[in-house]
Amino acid sequence: MDLIKVAEEAFATGKEFPKFKSGDTVTIAYRIKEGNKERVQQYRGVVIKIAGHGTKKRFTVRKMSDNIGVERIFPIESPFIDSITVNKVGKVRRAKLYYLRNLTGKKARIKEKRVVSNKA
């Protein structure tokens, strides 16, 4: 049992990412290795699911690429994630947004939660 915890700590990146939830639009800077070269790819989409807890937490991001829905699962403790940026905070009523798979066009949009600023 101790060996498992040692292995988990070795792979833990220790990076701090912003809090986000289902319905938020995020941009993930993901490092990709192609041969001996390495580049950072920006993956922007809507978080449709967050599963697991602790170091095993993972989230699914859905984006539209040439009218085709592409979903990708990212482990939160992945060493290949450079940064996560929250672009929009979505206003949704459920944790798993699988219904977005069946929607197209304007129906697939998520309302944005307005942030109240106290600049009186």
TrEMBL record:
This protein is located at the 30S-50S ribosomal subunit interface and may play a role in the structure and function of the aminoacyl-tRNA binding site. One of its GO terms (cellular component) is cytosolic large ribosomal subunit. The lineage of its organism: Bacteria, Pseudomonadati, Bacteroidota, Bacteroidia, Bacteroidales. This is Large ribosomal subunit protein bL19. Belongs to the bacterial ribosomal protein bL19 family. The gene is rplS. It comes from Dysgonomonas mossii DSM 22836. Keywords: Ribonucleoprotein, Ribosomal protein. GO terms for biological process: translation. GO terms for molecular function: structural constituent of ribosome. Gene3D superfamilies: 2.30.30.790. It comes from the Bacteria.
